[in-house]
Amino acid sequence: MSSSPLKGRLYEQVARIGKALASPKRLELIDLLVQGEKSVETLAAAADIDIRLASAHLRALREARLVDTRREGKHIYYRLSGDDISRLWITVRRTAEDHLAELRLALAEMVTKPHELHAEGRESLLEKARKGEVVVIDVRPVGEFQCGHLPFARSMPLAEISDRLSELPPDRDIVAYCRGPFCLLSEDAVALLSARGFRVRRIADGVGEWAAAGMPVERTKEEAA
Amino acid sequence: MSSSPLKGRLYEQVARIGKALASPKRLELIDLLVQGEKSVETLAAAADIDIRLASAHLRALREARLVDTRREGKHIYYRLSGDDISRLWITVRRTAEDHLAELRLALAEMVTKPHELHAEGRESLLEKARKGEVVVIDVRPVGEFQCGHLPFARSMPLAEISDRLSELPPDRDIVAYCRGPFCLLSEDAVALLSARGFRVRRIADGVGEWAAAGMPVERTKEEAA
DNA sequence: GAAACAATCTAACATTCGTTAGAATGTTTG
DNA sequence: CAAACATTCTAACGAATGTTAGATTGTTTC
Fold it and tell me: Could you give the CA distance from residue A150 to residue A205 in angstroms, rounded to a whole number?
């Protein structure tokens, strides 16, 4: 009575999403796209792969409807096809962190001190930033900052930090964030600033994690459809 | 400064979860396991595949830490390795439904009338069931009912329905549910009962969807660790 | 319209994966 | 301890996938 051929087709469709998530390179591209839309060229450079390979992976992601494209002049910009995709990525990554001991090990190896931010931690950080008790810096490239950033954060790309030390308070707490727990930009910023004597720490949240926790995000340049 | 080999290993780990979700058969097995733990034999029969193939797929799921096993006599029982796995499955499926037009088509083809249950719908159903205004029947096999079921639901496996018609009220609304939107058991139950003149409809929720929406679940037989 | 450029398409290869079938392991029953 | 049974392991095949390189399409600039 049950068990029609339809049922199999349904699982097949869902598996298309799974297949799209089955490659490390594609996951890295998704992780990059959580920060905002980017051209193929930019993505390939950030993921350190050949443009043609990036194009092939992006094609796979597009066929699974996880990303959309937009043409602007010579460039084609890719973006996640919805906020739920960023939530999907975080859910899958979270599951991996919770269930794969090896991933926990790799994470521990990478992020010497966790500096994780949980629940009330975010609220209190937001409050302190509002009052000016801490300075929140976004160490990603300016473009990503403009696509969306934490409230009260100021843009301070890693590449420019050494030249802009005078803009930072030597006597107040500084909190740096970047693309998320896997991103090393804020790690580098912390290393650089602590060496100069600043009171700085890192949070694991990127804009995606922050937003997924229900916290507000600000946008500098309006561009999203 | 950034871009260590560690980063790649992290995405690789997450991709293990993606790979596990990349096969229709494995997704079907996960979907079955959301209902509660089952032996390899049972799973293979339910998914209509060879036991040896089921074993191979379950091995892959186990290696991705999505399922755990338990031995009881001759049988080995598989279960999801946490509630978050059931949420993961629902998130991925939800994404597929939202983003894959073809999946929406297949769903429409299969579930002639959606009978979806959204937000307040669940609360009001629970209230009506509590007052006795509707009779909620769980048409899955008894074992799955015992592992967890909707509050106020009574077990009425599809196979037994025709012999137990006298237990059902001819003058009140009946709501049938089974394993979730992809499961056809409740569809069959509705067809069977409407033909007998009962006022019956189906809801797409299974126990997993119900619980994921924050609704309470009851357990008959205590067994979970 | 030609040159420069971004991105895609195509073909080819090595690798991995899904599936099948036969052999092996571990458990219970007599 | 032998027989029956559930499950896993191993080997093998074809299909699908990731990667690389070369050819092609579409856009801008001059």
Answer: 10
Residue A2 banded pLDDT, cuts 50, 70, 90: very low
Is domain A105-212 in CATH 3.40.50.2300, yes or no?
no
Mean pLDDT, rounded, for A87-111: 78
Query: What does A190-209 look like in DSSP terms, one character per residue?
Result: HHHHHHTT--EEE-S--HHH
Long-range contacts, stretch A193-200, CB < 8 angstroms, 24+ apart: A193/A161, A193/A168, A196/A165, A197/A170, A198/A168, A198/A170, A198/A174, A199/A171, A199/A172, A199/A173, A199/A174, A200/A173, A200/A174, A200/A175, A200/A176
The nucleotide whose C1' lies nearest the CA of B22 is C17
| Chain B residue at shortest CA distance from A9 | B106
Could you tell me where in chain B the CATH 1.10.10.10 domains are found? Answer: 4-85
Nearest of A60, A58, A52 to residue A37 by alpha carbon = A58
Residues in chain B: 225
Which residues of chain B are modeled with pLDDT < 50?
1-3, 112-114, 223-225
The domain A4-85 is placed in CATH, from the list 1.10.10.10, 1.20.1070.10, 3.40.50.980, 3.20.20.480, at 1.10.10.10
What is this structure's pTM? 0.75
pLDDT at A219 over 90: no
User: Could you tell me the distance in Å between the CA of residue B35 and the C1' of nucleotide C30?
Assistant: 36
Q: Is A82 helix (H, G, I), strand (E, B) or coil?
A: coil
Q: Is the CB of A223 under 7 A from strand D?
A: no
**Given A67, A85, A178, A183, the catalytic residue:** A178
